[in-house]
From TrEMBL:
Name under which the protein is recorded: J domain-containing protein
PANTHER family: SEC63 DOMAIN-CONTAINING, TRANSLOCATION PROTEIN SEC63 HOMOLOG
Domain J: 105-167
InterPro entries: C2_domain_sf (IPR035892), DnaJ_domain (IPR001623), DnaJ_domain_CS (IPR018253), Ig_E-set (IPR014756), J_dom_sf (IPR036869), Sec63-dom (IPR004179)
Compositionally biased region (Basic and acidic residues): 486-496
Source domain of life: Eukaryota
Organism lineage: Eukaryota, Metazoa, Ecdysozoa, Arthropoda, Hexapoda
């Protein structure tokens, strides 16, 4: 077998092929993704957008956000065109390469037919050699060598046999490997330049680029927040576990993203020495004399003053502080999300007893409240109606006085003639603009379902069970409420106090049923101090909370929630039977009425059991589909619906937080799940462990918007946690010690979550 030969590309053909392939691989996807395209504006979509002066101003800001956008677009187009021109040139050059040995035909070279005799072949050879010989003026050494090789292949017996057998008169030649580099690269006179370029690229440029990238990336978290800022959040949240909204705003303004020493994008001007103090004098309750570091730093005071001015919708100097406002407000949503994450991590660390103090639920909720406030440029105590364009405080006073309209949902339910009458001093254009914006705002149908997936009976929650709480969010536009004056009655808003009274009269029987409280509608405002199911608990009840929950308690919360929904499905028929018995017997107790309708109840229970058996396979498939869906959504989208936010200098999508908490103990039970892809309907699964001790637990499932004020919802659940079945003691691998002080552990964990006194007595 012949040997192997390695040779550099003398003619440049192989190198051209390499460059051509590499350029095509880079140029095709680059053209597809980076070729500037002018978006065609949909006239119908243009009409649906808000045309208020603030939105027009915001669109102008967005259009001028990139001053070099046109130059960048032209540069991209020129680069891509030059790349394609080079690709076409290389393609042409490659097509001109002559690979003689790849298609060696001696008859064609000698220009004779395959049937030519030896005399004709010799004659043709002598005639062409006179022309192609290197000594002649028209000679060509390469062509003459090919001519000689063709003549030899047709006249010499050995060469002719090799040609017929191998297609080459020289026989089976050596295997040749071409290196796709031109030969001048390895020439001696060019070695210094080649080595210098190699060292510059691979030993200087690439390590420097990687080092700069690494140095910058290690300073930021996954959400592009400085790690030093995250550490500052941890410090202040740990220092102030019950953080008020005002202090949370101070901590947000102290983020190091607003400090010139940590962020080169920050602009410091000489005019700040005059404008910032003048702005501070116009802002009450700024607390600029705070002595805590870094809250007392100048950058922090400036950012805080600008945020207060933003929330008060104060006009600022367009050339100085207004640009600072846009820069600060753009970064706030990411910083608020990082603060929420820090609070949750501290809660988990407190459960694990790594930190002594547990942040309260008010702390994380105050952090969440900052997001819609900043997005809308509105203080929390202001009316949500001010999120609509053209409306002022005078309009709100008139609307409240005439029709008692205090929130967006109530305004949407008014008849068209009533809403137009309330805004009669506005023009038709302004009124239509208001209704257009209101109609596109979200209306969320918020429901929950709790199950113990890994247990045989998914409808019963036992102590220590892993529970899955499925939160279902269905989004509609607010225009679905237009003119629907009976919508609150359909959702049972007016019946809430009566329903709660019935629950209290039901005593232990009603509590043991663990039926979720009736869902509050999207437009129901929380009722403070009345103990309503859609609102906060009275302050007195909150003050009576026990010690902070233990690690097991955190899991307990969720399980409790799950059990409630599960128990609800199995106890509906029994509740109906009890109510029928009460209507017949008058003042009979729940137990007596249940006994009186025993036969009816047995029949219904039998039908329920048979239906449950028939639906086992369907239920299992549904649960598996939900689990698979959760896995697929690990890389979830961040596109939902555009938010109307004229005071926020960027486009914003609707996001939501959902979590479970215990209002009485003021503790967070599950990690706040950030819903970023709610387009029409989404299901979110929250998992945690049930309490270790049986009892009836009360929890709250919350939904909060990070973009709109007045869109928050919550549902309360009463959950009956059953005693876990005793493990088999005769198993040879289990050696359970009977000397453990179980009574002490029980006393310690009874205060993990608050329960109703009557429920505890009944369960005991």
């Amino acid at each position: 077998m012949a040997g192997q030969k390695f040779q550099y590309d003398e003619s440049g053909g192989t190198f051209y092929y390499f460059v051509l392939s590499f350029l095509a691989l880079v140029l095709i996807p680059t053209t597809i993704y980076y070729w500037p395209r002018k978006k065609k504006e949909d006239p119908s979509k243009r009409k649906e957008e808000c045309q208020c002066p603030d939105c027009v101003k915001k669109n102008f800001i967005l259009a001028n956000a990139e001053p070099y956008r046109m130059l960048k677009s032209v540069a991209i187009k020129v680069t891509i065109v030059l790349g394609w021109a080079l690709l076409l040139f290389l393609t042409y050059r490659v097509s001109q390469f002559d690979y003689e040995m790849a298609s060696f035909d001696p008859f064609e070279i000698l220009n004779v037919p395959p049937t030519a005799t030896q005399a004709e072949i010799k004659k043709a050879y002598y005639r062409l050699s006179k022309v192609l010989h290197p000594d002649k003026e028209t000679g060509d050494e390469k062509s003459f060598m090919m001519l000689s090789k063709a003549y030899q292949a047709l006249t010499d017996d050995v060469a002719k046999e090799n040609y017929e057998k191998y297609g080459n008169p020289d026989g089976p030649g050596a295997m040749s490997f071409g290196i796709a580099l031109p030969s001048w690269i390895v020439e001696k006179e060019n070695s210094v330049w080649v080595l210098g370029l190699y060292g510059l690229v691979f030993m200087v440029a690439m390590p420097s680029a990687v080092g700069v990238w690494w140095y910058r990336s290690i300073r930021f978290s996954g959400d592009k927040v400085l790690l030093d800022t995250t550490q500052m959040y941890f410090y202040f949240i740990h220092k102030t576990p019950h953080m008020l909204l005002k202090r949370a705003l101070m901590v947000l303004a102290a983020s190091l993203e607003f400090d010139k020493r940590h962020n080169s994008q920050v602009i410091e001007r000489q005019s700040d020495n005059d404008e910032v103090p003048a702005l501070i004098r116009q802002l009450p309750n700024l607390n600029e004399k705070c002595k805590e570091h870094p809250l007392c730093r100048m950058y922090s005071i400036k950012a805080r003053a600008i945020l207060h001015a933003h929330l008060s919708r104060m006009p600022l100097n367009a050339e100085t502080l207004e640009r600072d406002r846009q820069f600060i407000v753009k970064k706030c949503p990411y910083l608020v999300q990082e603060m929420v994450s820090c609070v949750h991590q501290l809660v988990m660390m407190a459960y694990a007893r790594r930190v002594p103090r547990l942040p309260s639920i008010e702390t994380i909720e105050n952090c969440m409240k900052m997001s819609p406030m900043i997005i809308q440029g509105l203080w929390e105590f202001k009316s949500p109606l001010l999120q609509l364009p053209h409306l002022t405080e005078d309009h709100l006073y008139f609307m409240n006085k005439k029709r008692h309209v205090k929130n967006l949902q109530q305004f949407a339910q008014l008849k068209p003639e009533e809403s137009r009458m309330l805004l009669k001093n506005l023009s038709d254009f302004e009124y239509e603009n208001i209704m257009r914006v209101l109609g596109k705002m979200p209306l969320i149908d918020f429901s929950i379902r709790c199950e113990v997936i890994d247990d045989e009976n998914t409808n019963v929650v036992t102590a220590g069970a892993i529970v899955t709480v499925t939160v279902t969010l269905e989004r509609k536009d607010m225009r679905s409420l237009f003119g629907d004056t009976k919508a609150p009655e359909k959702q049972g808003i007016k019946d809430e106090p009566n329903e709660e009274a019935e629950d209290e009269e039901g005593g232990a029987g009603a509590a043991a049923a663990a039926v979720p409280v009736k869902k509050a509608s999207a437009w129901a405002k929380p009722r403070k101090g009345k103990g309503g199911k859609g609102g906060k608990k009275p302050v007195n009840n909150q003050k009576k909370k026990p010690a902070p929950p233990k690690p097991a308690a955190a899991a307990a919360a969720t399980s409790a929630t799950a059990a409630a929904a599960a128990a609800a499905s199995t106890t509906d028929d029994q509740t109906v039977a009890n109510s029928e018995a009460e209507s017949d017997a008058g003042e009979h107790s729940d137990v007596e009425s249940a006994a009186g309708s025993g036969s009816e109840e047995d029949d219904k229970q039998g039908r329920n059991n048979s239906s449950l058996d028939d639906d086992d396979d369907e239920e299992w498939e549904r649960l598996q589909a939900k689990l698979n869906k959760r896995e697929r959504l690990e890389g979830k989208s961040r596109m939902s619906h555009a938010v109307h936010c004229p005071y926020f200098p960027e486009e914003k999508q609707e996001y939501w937080w959902t979590y479970i908490c215990d209002r009485k103990s003021r503790t967070l039970l599950t990690a706040p799940y950030h819903v970023t892809n709610l387009v029409e309907k989404e299901e979110i699964q929250l998992k945690f462990t049930a309490p270790r001790w049986p009892g009836v637990y009360t929890f709250t499932v919350c939904l909060r918007s990070d973009s709109y004020l007045g869109m928050d919802q919550q549902q309360e659940l009463k959950l009956d946690v059953q005693k876990a079945p005793a493990p088999p003691t005769d198993h040879p691998q289990w050696d359970l010690s009977e000397s453990e002080p179980e009574h002490t552990d029980q006393q310690e964990n009874l205060s993990d979550y608050t329960t109703d006194t009557s429920d505890e007595e009944d369960s005991n």
